[in-house]
Design brief:
Immunoglobulin-like, mainly beta, Ferric Hydroxamate Uptake Protein, Chain A, domain 1, 51 strands, 22-stranded antiparallel barrel
Length: about 950
């Protein structure tokens, strides 16, 4: 047989024509499957078709569609089934030759009767689809995180969830959890936190911003981050507004919750230290004694200073939500509660900075922070219990009138042991390091109790087709108590042993340093003891009224709104501190007491004044009153079918007054502040298509100083630096510009790109300065001229089959120019040099990359999340170029879950898999501290000095979730 092969080009042409002919006669059946009441896509529903011997099944894909390609022509029976939904009737669809047949199916859940009217207002807002819709229809520039995304993420706290949102970085506490959000490079003080649209007070003992780690993520329905303001929003949010929308009553009975456990890798390497918190006295002696009364040593029990070390127990977390509607769907009720008991901690190294710096050779050079006299090695062990509850009742009188009563209680309690090894450096070397003349061991036990309580009553009323109004009354209270921050010290001297050698001192060849081969230690002696009680309460009573009038202007829809609000805030702060001096052994030759144990230690008051405590004269004891009154008018106008705009003006009046216990001889004992701000804004939106739009906005906003920012007293109750207020501080005004393009091509897919610019007048930053109460180095808030902040954001999320990727990146630059000191050698006068730098807390680069896996057929979801935050200033120095910076960080987290039967989920979460440390550094020459015979621990480069290095290690959790 002879076979003739066609030339290759002809062969390819025949294949192409064959394919075209085949495809032209192929048949396709496809469509979309959704919930009949809510319109939500039902991902994972099974679509079944039959035609003779042809039987096929396919799941609904991530975009809510199903597709049967290349099916034989004919008449098919089609049916859809999904857990918790009624299987649909059999539909008859015709697959005609060469055509595409489309059938969209709306399914009814098991709790719905066939003749029930859809109640869209009670639809779930916890899905990604709902979050994307909220972003699309928002009046301003907004990012929304759904409860569904939160459940799938590696996070269990709202604060950690926010770290994955574009433009947001976070700062972390001593356990490694995120605490506060920094939005678009604007320090946490520039942001506000709302619950269901109502501002809440903060339990923080110094600041307005709310610690976001107090919120369990399982309580929220969605998180809205507004990056531009409209006139009906309060004007003190220049970075952004974080609105926690809590769970609402569902359309039918809902019962869900979870149980989980976990462990920290930190405690696989070292023990967990604890104390008996039940022995802590809730009140200070000064609260029970008469004015100027003397406390006795018996008023300070030692039991809460006795610590024990062992293995940390496993974490235990639980959550339960129950909700339903009654009275023909008029009455909705929901309760949700969560409890978390977690064991966490960190290992920390800190170099103590002082006022003394090395002199610069000339006025164009910077000083060097080299006079490090001591450092801390600290181990933190924290037992944290977190309780969160919400209850909500709503009643719909008719289609025009409804009312809602909401209440929440949030609690974050921490029982912590901090063990500190304080090195006081000497002039010799041991084992290659700058070593010590003495070591102080300080053990601190601390009970930290924070809570927020809020009740909100809201009403919505429609008087006519054109006129409606809504109102809100809210009462909130935040408390923070630290009963008996107790610390005692032991110490022992060290000296170099014999047999060492002298070697040239690094950087000074004219001197030598003794290099020891052994260390001689003295006896452990008892030191002084300190006891501090603090508590503060922040109370808010507020009311809001909004009027709306729907009309037309030039034939186009226009919505007029006007409203007013008032808030009365009172804050009180209490501090009572005592210093107990160590006694002496009766038979001892010296006056030092050798430490045996805490119960055996003796203490006394070396001065009668010490027995009075500090509360009678402590400037940290103060009351603060703040009244805010606001009014606005705005218009939303639809220029055409694609273009709408919102513009208006807001007025806010501020009254502040405080009275402190400062002596009358010091300035700032009391002060009153009054000012009024007029805040214009405009938001425009142009819809290119149903899924694409361009937004632009301008608004003016303000920053009011925090309460403690205004009161000039040194506070050492917070870890780290001493802080002090400034009664001459001015509030900040900010002009904000924003533009964004947004595209939502699918249920999960999104694409956004935009830019922003902010001009700050009198920004407030924390600066190292000398306290008026002595030569102590303290952080004080100051106004530092004017500043610019600008940048760009990019967000993209796309699924390719079961694999998806989510990426966001924010580039930010800020500029502020301020005079800084230079201490020039042999020059008595101070030299100043202007320094241009970024704003405190602003990182140039912030990025998140998540790899996503979603298999709806097998109920598998997984996420590998990488978060990057660039370097940023943590604290501003008064010296030129000696600011303290936070090093860039890279965090890796993982989560996965498996769904069984549509109602049960087994999940695993792992955080901080890279053991990313928290590092602070100073940009200066570090050649002799980094290498040689006098180096300090944790020094990584000759180009910068590491002044803090904290490690948290990975944490793991395993849990079970259910939903009925």
């Amino acid at each position: 047989m002879n076979i003739t092969l066609l030339p290759k080009p002809y062969f390819l042409l025949i294949l192409l024509l064959t394919g075209l002919c085949y495809s032209s006669f192929a048949q396709t059946i496809k469509g979309h499957v959704s919930d009949s009441k809510t319109g939500e896509t039902l991902i994972g529903a099974t679509v079944h078709i039959e035609h003779g011997n042809t039987i096929l099944n396919t799941p609904v894909k991530l975009d809510g569609t199903y597709t049967f390609n290349n099916v034989p022509a004919g008449s098919y029976k089609l049916q859809v089934s999904y857990i918790s939904y009624k299987t649909t009737k059999e539909y008859i669809v015709e697959a005609e030759k060469g055509k595409v047949t489309v059938l969209n199916v709306a399914m009814i859940d098991n709790s719905t009767s066939l003749n029930e009217v859809a109640i869209i207002e009670y639809a779930s807002k916890e899905t990604d689809n709902s979050a994307r819709n909220a972003e699309k229809i928002a009046n301003n520039t907004m990012n929304v995180v759904s409860a569904s995304s939160i459940a799938l993420s590696p996070d269990v706290l709202v604060s950690n969830v926010l770290s994955r949102v574009s433009g947001i970085s976070v700062d972390r506490g001593n356990t490694g959890d995120a605490q506060h959000a920094i939005i678009r490079g604007m320090d946490k003080q520039y942001n506000t936190t709302l619950i269901n649209g109502v501002k809440i007070p903060s339990p923080d003992n110094k600041n307005r911003y709310v610690p976001l780690d107090i919120f369990p993520a399982d309580l929220v329905e969605k998180i809205e981050i507004s990056k531009s303001l409209t006139p009906d929003m309060e004007g003190d949010a220049s970075g952004g507004v974080i609105n926690l929308v809590m769970k609402t009553a569902p359309s039918h009975l809902r019962v869900e919750g979870y149980l989980s456990t976990g462990y920290s890798q930190l405690f696989l390497d070292r023990g967990f230290s604890s104390f008996n918190a039940s022995t802590v006295h809730s009140k200070a002696p000064g609260e029970s004694l008469p004015p100027l009364g003397y406390a006795s040593i018996s008023d300070f029990p030692y039991q809460n200073l006795v610590t024990k070390t062992g293995n940390a127990p496993p974490n235990a977390n639980a959550s339960l939500t129950i909700g339903d509607r009654f009275l023909n769907n008029k009455l909705g009720v929901i309760f949700s509660g969560t409890y978390e008991n977690t064991y966490a901690g960190s290992n920390s190294f800190v170099i103590v900075q002082t006022n003394t710096v090395g002199p610069a050779p000339d006025a164009n050079s910077q000083n060097q922070e080299t006079n490090f006299q001591s450092s801390y090695n600290r181990m933190y062990s924290s037992q944290i219990d977190r309780l969160g509850t919400i209850a909500s009742i709503d009643y719909k009188f008719d289609n025009n009138n409804s009312i809602n009563l909401f209440a929440t209680y949030l609690q974050l309690n921490e029982h912590r042991v901090r063990e500190t090894e304080n090195f006081v450096y000497g002039g010799y070397s041991y084992q290659g390091y700058h070593y010590t003349n003495g070591i102080d061991n300080l053990t601190e036990t601390r009970t930290d109790l924070q809570s927020i309580f809020n009740t909100t009553l809201k009403g919505k009323h429609k008087i006519s087709n054109a006129f409606s109004f809504d109102w809100t009354l809210a009462k909130s209270e935040a408390t923070h108590k630290q009963p008996d921050i107790a610390e005692f010290k032991t110490s022992y001297n060290t000296s170099p042993g014999p047999g060492g050698t002298n070697q040239p001192t690094p950087g000074d060849l004219n001197s030598s340093t003794y290099v020891a081969t052994s260390i001689v230690t003295g006896p452990v002696l008892l030191g002084d003891e300190s006891r501090v009680w603090t508590h503060n309460t922040d109370k808010d009573v507020s009311g809001y009224l909004n009027l709306h009038y729907d009309t037309k202007i030039f034939g186009r829809k226009a919505l007029f709104s006007a409203g007013a609000m008032a808030r009365h805030k009172t804050r009180d702060n209490f501090v009572d501190s005592y210093k107990l001096n160590h006694g002496s052994d009766p038979g001892s030759i010296t006056s030092d007491e050798v430490f045996v144990s805490v119960p055996a230690s003796t203490f006394t008051f070396n001065s009668p004044d010490y027995a009075r405590g500090s509360s009678y004269s402590d400037p940290g004891v103060y009351t603060f009153t703040e009244n805010i009154q606001g009014a606005y008018g705005m218009l939303k106008y639809f220029v055409n079918d694609h273009f709408d705009m919102i513009f208006g003006l807001r007025e806010e009046k501020t009254y502040q007054s405080y009275l402190s216990q400062l002596p009358v001889t010091f300035p700032g004992k009391t002060a009153t502040f009054n000012y009024t701000d007029y805040l214009p804004s405009i938001n425009v939106k142009y819809a290119l298509t149903d899924n694409q739009a361009i937004r632009a906005s301008y608004f003016t906003s303000i920053l009011r100083p925090a309460f403690a920012d205004l009161i000039p007293y040194p506070d050492q109750t917070v870890d780290g630096n001493i802080t002090m207020g400034n009664p001459y501080l001015q509030h900040t005004t900010i002009n904000n510009y924003d533009v964004r393009y947004e595209f939502f091509p699918g249920v999960f897919d999104e694409f956004m790109v935009g830019g922003f610019y902010k001009y700050l007048i009198n920004p407030i930053e924390q600066t190292y300065t000398t306290s008026q109460f002595g030569a102590t180095l303290a952080l004080m808030p100051v106004n530092l001229g004017n500043a610019h902040n600008y940048g760009a954001e990019f967000v993209a999320k796309k699924f390719f089959g079961n694999i998806g990727a989510s990426v966001n990146y924010t580039y930010t630059q800020s500029l502020v120019t301020t005079p800084k000191e230079i201490d020039v050698i042999n020059q008595t006068s101070i030299t100043y040099h202007n320094q241009t730098r970024p704003l405190q807390g602003q990182a140039d680069h912030i990025g998140n990359v998540s790899l996503l896996y979603k298999d709806t057929k097998n109920g598998l979801d997984a996420q590998l999340a990488l978060a990057y935050t660039g370097q940023r200033i943590a604290a501003v120095s008064k010296y030129y170029n000696l600011d303290t910076w936070e090093k860039a960080s890279l965090n890796l987290d993982f989560s996965a879950q498996k769904t069984f039967g549509g109602r049960y989920i087994l999940f695993v979460k792992a955080n901080n898999l890279l053991n990313t440390p928290y590092e602070l550094f100073i940009k200066q020459n570090n050649t002799y501290n980094n290498t040689g015979i006098l180096k300090y621990p944790h020094q990584e480069s000759p180009n910068y000095t590491t002044v803090e290095y904290d490690q948290y290690y990975a944490r793991y959790s395993l849990g079970f979730r259910f939903k009925f």
